[in-house]
From TrEMBL:
Principal subcellular localization: membrane
Domain of life: Bacteria
UniProt name for this protein: Sodium:proton exchanger
Membrane-spanning intervals of the chain: 6-29, 36-55, 61-91, 103-125, 131-151, 163-184, 199-220, 232-250, 285-304, 310-332, 344-366, 372-389
Amino acid sequence: MAGELTLSPVLSDALVILGSAGIVIPLFARFRITPIIGFILIGVLVGPSGLGSLVDEHPWLYYITITNVVRLVPFADFGIILLLFAIGLELSFNRLWQMRKLVFGLGALEVLISGGALALFMGLAGDMNTAAALALGFALAFSSTAIVLPISGTKSPVGRAALSMLLFEDIMIVPIIFILGALAPNAADEGWGGMIRTLWQGGLVVAVLLVAGRVLLPRLFAQAARTKSPELFLSASLLVVIGASLATALVGLSPIVGALIAGLLIAETEYHTEVEQIMEPFKGLALGVFLITVGMSINLAEIAEQIGPIALAVTGVVMFKAIITGSLLRLMGARRSTAAETGLLMASPSETTLIVLAAATSALVLDAETARFWQTVTAIGLTITPLLAKLGAAVARRVDATAQNSEEEEPATARTIIVGGGRVGRLVADMMRTHTKPYVMIDSNPDLIELAKRDGYRATFGDAARGDTLARLGVEDAPAVVLTMDEPVLAQRLVAKLRQAYPDLLIVARARDPDHAAAMYRAGASHAVPETLEASLQLSEAVLVDIGVAMGPVIASIHAKRDEFREQLERDGGLSEKPRLKTGSLREREA
């Protein structure tokens, strides 16, 4: 029929997901609730077990539901890949090396003890054979990287403990999958032989990625930065993460290993802040797709039929894992508050649990009915993870009144941010170093940053006008922001943006002339220094003194002329008070 609306299944699913994100994120942010719960609930509502089951009776529901979860799985997997890539950007190899004892100590103990204890319990209480009990026990021992780290961060004590355990769990995915293959009733030597082959091939690929990445990535991103094209920067970032993920996947390793390595390599370059900022929206959307698929796997009818056993299983797994994880942290010297909060945060099963259960089912280690029951338990556990995080924070405050908030990051030194790495920015940095004041210089020109770092300046690549670049550098706690770039329109926009976001921030800006200085003051600058004016006054001072005029009258006339221009700026800028054209001493400012 002409004019009839027809949508392909893929386009229909995409519209549902984008519409869900447009509703969930602002709505839940309005009530200060994590959108994780919202995405899962949306998945339950629009999935095959929710409104999707009514499409045959009401065809119009096709346009607002998703009836085939399988189509979303690749997008959900990509979300996990981007998440691990972002984690790598935050880590760097130096920080990972510093955490090696936590990763291979705490992480290994958590997986082995939790998995072993759960397997023993399943074997005794569930009357399972050894292979099935081991598969189920270690599947439930995993915790959700995709949900836990966005909640905990990676820099707080809770975040560091969670990250160390999750990193080891991610490493253990491959051997556990292969061991399940070896335990299959119809397996011969293929399982162990395949694991050995994957390990040496994977080790070779990882070594190649590490060497090639250190050589090629700085050059690749430097070329992208020179074009000043955000699209090219995004393309380079996606090329790196997808290429590294495919490389590890081709030899049998998990693609998230390649994504993590790609992030770690980029974290060693000066472009990591820009890459992290560009990838943030894509990571959030892809993670939302994953959470929607989790919600779709929850069948409310099946839960209603088995509400007792399912509730008992969820409660038992959560309590068991919380006790094991919290006890391990206490034995390793963690505070009571950190142990309690981390234990509850890590207590739920994981998206990896679903992968291990599927592998165990295909290997005939677990029967389909048992796997389906524990998949439902896992989906519910993922749903309640944000609630467990809030419960953990509340328990932490009770058991340790002096504990810091779990979301508080490591204290960072407040530093002045210098925007622009040219001659003016360098001069400001020199004065900061002379007076031992911490600073960081930022510029979107990779060549200037490279030269500055080579000359010993604290410099990083980034576009100060885009997104939350300055926020990542700590602008909220910065003593001042100094704008030194010779781009009048961009500087004026940046001043207005900073003043709106940070009303009390000291903003010192370079201006071309008095007219531009007046515009900068109107935009919200604390101080604007016109180059032409100050250069003219200094030239006048030099020539008058050298031709024989006494220093005192010269300085007085310079001050008088500066006052004239101050009055002119007051008139031109419509200011309520006279601005300072040149910052004096503390005594002069207090006078």
